[in-house]
Specification:
Elements: E1 15-19, E2 22-27, E3 34-39, E4 48-49, E5 51-56, E6 59-60, E7 73-83, E8 98-109, E9 113-125, E10 135-138, E11 141-147, E12 151-157, E13 164-165, E14 174-183, E15 189-199, E16 202-212, E17 224-226, E18 229-234, E19 241-243, E20 249-252, E21 256-258, E22 261-263, E23 269-271, E24 273-282, E25 288-298
Parallel strand pairs: 18-25
Antiparallel strand pairs: 1-2, 3-5, 4-18, 6-7, 7-8, 7-16, 8-9, 9-10, 9-11, 10-13, 11-12, 12-14, 14-15, 15-16, 17-20, 19-23, 20-21, 22-24, 24-25
Length: 300
């Protein structure tokens, strides 16, 4: 697996890292997609069908066309925002560990669900980790992903592969290994790369890799939207706006009926002219379907 190069940031943008109590230079850093197109079938007045573009950032691992996809395997490619406040170093950290941070983030992991990520991050400078006293590596540590209502995935972050200057440490990628799980994810395994982009107490982690859970079929199919159809309405004479109602629904193969959010909301008073309505629905595995349609209001 190819590791992404760490992102560079201006020195003034970095927050302070300390090395054995000595202030160090600041350090800053800051989720592909499978596209699936689904036809929308509508039952309201109008004749223009709209296609829903469904963004799936987790997808089932695919095999060659001659064989089916492997059951129980999920390919990861997703980013998660995190907070990274300074904290005391873990009790099992080396005595000379520096820059200890508690990284916690929450977001949607398509194929899994709503997830909370937690782990500690710290580094070591100089020998025996690196030849130069000014270079270092992020250190190995453990963490977990808690999937709401489903279980937990435990992982091990490995020591960074290369020695780098202190300004680049927080953006240095680390390989991860899935070491187990609970609930739905009991027996989980897998591996990949975690790319860091940290900045002033917050940042983004990008997960790229594979999770395998024997006997578990990951749900990566988004809901199906119905009712998103372009339409034309006419305002009453002398009116510049008209209240427009529409019904968009979503059905999921696993969850059944799921809520739909549209903007503008049904019943909104729209002005004469064209307006675009955007709708989306997300299932319990964080697979999202979206659609848009036009509403044309003609003057009375």
């Amino acid at each position: 697996m190819t590791l992404s190069s760490p992102r560079a940031f201006p020195k003034r943008a970095f927050d302070t890292i300390t090395e054995a109590g000595r202030p160090g230079p600041p350090c800053r850093g800051v989720i592909g997609r499978l596209g699936k197109r689904a036809s929308l079938h509508v039952g309201t007045t109008g004749s223009v069908a709209v296609a829903a573009v469904v963004a799936v950032v987790f997808a089932l691992a695919t095999a060659p066309a001659s064989s089916p996809a492997s059951a129980g395997t999920l390919n990861l490619r997703v980013s998660l925002r995190f907070d990274s406040p300074a904290t005391s170093c873990p009790s099992d950290a080396p005595a000379d560990a520096g820059g200890c941070r508690a990284r916690t983030g929450k977001g949607l992991f398509p194929g899994l669900g709503s997830a909370t990520q937690t782990y500690a991050w710290y580094y070591r400078l100089g020998p025996p980790t690196c030849p130069s006293p000014d270079d270092g590596k992020p250190q190995a540590n453990t963490g977990r992903l808690v999937i709401a209502g489903k279980g937990e995935i435990q992982f091990l972050l490995l020591e960074g592969k290369r020695c780098t200057d202190v300004e680049s440490l927080r953006n240095e990628p680390q390989e991860f290994t899935i070491t187990g799980g609970t609930g739905t994810y009991a027996g989980a395994a897998g591996s990949g790369t975690l790319d860091h982009s940290a900045a002033s107490g917050f940042g983004t982690d990008t997960w790229t890799g594979t999770i395998v859970v024997p006997g578990h079929d990951f749900d990566v199919t988004p809901p199906t939207l119905s009712g998103a159809q372009s339409r034309t309405v006419r305002a009453t004479k002398g009116s510049k706006r008209v209240r427009v109602s529409y019904t968009v629904t979503a059905t999921d193969a696993v969850d059944g009926r799921v809520p739909v959010s549209c903007a503008p909301r049904p019943g909104t008073r729209l002005s004469v002219g064209r307006s675009v309505v955007e709708c989306s629905a997300t299932d319990s595995s964080a697979n999202t379907a979206s659609a848009s349609f036009r509403v044309t209001v003609k003057p009375g």
